[in-house]
Design a protein that fits this description.
Layout: E1 6-11, E2 32-33, E3 37-38, H1 41-49, E4 54-58, H2 63-70, E5 84-87, H3 104-109, H4 112-118, E6 122-127, E7 130-132, H5 136-145, E8 150-156, E9 166-170, E10 176-181, E11 190-199, H6 200-211, H7 220-230, E12 235-239, E13 244-246, H8 250-260, E14 287-288, E15 293-295, E16 298-299, E17 304-305, E18 308-310, E19 313-314, E20 319-320, E21 325-327, E22 330-331, E23 336-337, E24 342-344, E25 346-348, E26 353-354, E27 359-360, E28 369-371
Parallel strand pairs: 1-4, 1-6, 4-5, 8-12, 14-17, 15-18, 16-19, 17-20, 18-21, 19-22, 20-23, 21-24, 22-25, 23-26, 24-27, 25-28
Antiparallel strand pairs: 2-3, 6-11, 7-13, 8-11, 9-10
């Protein structure tokens, strides 16, 4: 199906405070994932693979690195004539003071002029901080088939996790009858994935009205979706059955990385039919010395392994020195684990040095340790 008439807007301004030091100097969507990727590679690659040619990336918190990265549309094939990735930070408007995006709906409202330039029939709204592969073309086909005003992508979640999400209650035809934002006692476990397709004319008019409401939080979940339901608009759920993870915590980010080296890898980054595109780092090939040993790992180029690594994800230019041990861990670009050191069940931020004979993390710990500063070694 030709998606020329659908434009995508990626909400990528989140601080990601639950990722602590990983997001002190960069926006959450720019956080590293899977040995060579950044989180935002996934929605951008999904757009490219779904033949969506125009993508707006709405940035706000610590945007410099993300702006430079996302603005290079050639990584995803979105730099040809008639296509592009457009970085859209908050900007000063005529007659108004400069202000940050006040909510998810406000972020789209502040960019109405940008969307109007392309005059789309539909607008796809995405989160910039989820790991998944989805064909948005199929979701649009569902939207059209149902003659929907809004389609929300949903997936079942464990019942004990349902209170963390926006929950959809639907009829047998997947028409949304009720929406509950983080309910204490959910009536279903169909959770919103934060992926929406709107008819643009309808959304545009509602955003303009919502912006005038001083009592609104200008949020899709809290304000826009409940309003559409109250007005008896046609809202439908789109059931997604593939891999999807919100990597909003250290534990969930670690779990998503470990999922890649699981024997039942649902994400399948090796799928040539649905590639996830990213930047290619110019570096030497990986090297495993005669003293090095590797078991069941993702290892990127430039890595030098002289110690023992098991069940781990290593980014580019990681160094594991002789006698060092790394197990069940994620080591981001440029990490050095010196002689005799041990790293277990940890995420180590980029360029951190784990000193000689240091011990980081524990196989017995339930929580994943984040290491964001150098760890002194022992002589």
């Amino acid at each position: 199906m030709d998606n020329f008439n659908m434009l995508a807007m990626i909400l990528a301004g989140g601080r990601g405070s639950r990722l602590f030091e990983l997001t002190n100097k960069t926006a959450k969507p720019a956080v590293y994932f899977g040995g060579k990727y950044r989180i935002i590679d996934f929605p951008l690659s999904n757009c490219a693979n779904s033949n969506i040619n125009v993508v707006g990336v709405l940035t706000q918190y610590e945007p410099v690195q993300l702006n430079a990265y996302a603005g290079a549309g050639q990584r995803w094939g979105l730099d040809t004539r008639g296509s592009g990735v457009y970085v859209l930070p908050p900007s000063e408007k005529d007659g108004t003071k400069f202000g940050v995006y006040q909510g998810t709906a406000d972020a789209i409202y502040q960019n109405i002029d940008f969307i109007d330039e392309f005059n789309p029939g539909y607008v796809l709204i995405l989160s910039g901080d989820h790991i998944y592969k989805m064909n948005y073309d199929k979701m649009l086909a569902d939207h059209r088939r149902n003659d929907a005003d809004l389609t929300v992508a949903v997936r079942p979640v464990p019942w004990d996790e349902a209170p963390r999400f926006g929950i959809m209650n639907c009829d047998m035809n997947n028409r949304i009858l009720e929406f509950e934002e983080k309910p204490k006692e959910p009536k279903s476990n169909l959770a919103s994935m934060g992926i929406y397709i709107f008819d643009w004319d309808l959304l545009r008019s509602i955003l303009i009205e919502d912006a005038k409401n001083p009592e609104s939080s200008h949020d899709f979940g809290n304000d826009i979706i409940p309003r559409l339901l109250n007005e008896k608009k046609r809202l439908f759920a789109y059931n997604f059955n593939g891999y999807w993870k919100d990597v909003g915590t250290i534990d969930s980010l670690w779990e998503a990385n470990m999922d890649l080296i699981n024997h039942n890898d649902e994400l399948d980054l090796g799928d040539l039919q649905w590639k996830i595109y990213t930047s290619d780092i110019p570096s030497l090939p990986q090297y495993v010395s005669p003293t090095g040993r590797v078991e069941h790992c993702y290892i990127n180029q430039g890595a030098v392994i002289r110690g023992f690594v098991k069940n781990s994800v290593l980014f580019n230019n990681v160094k594991i020195q002789e006698g060092a041990t790394v197990v069940d861990s994620v080591l981001m670009p440029g990490v050095v684990v010196e002689e005799g050191a041990t790293v277990n069940r940890a995420i180590v931020a980029d360029k951190v040095i784990i000193g000689k004979n240091a011990v980081v993390g524990s196989a017995d710990s339930e929580k994943i340790l984040l290491v964001s500063e150098d760890v002194k070694g022992e002589n």
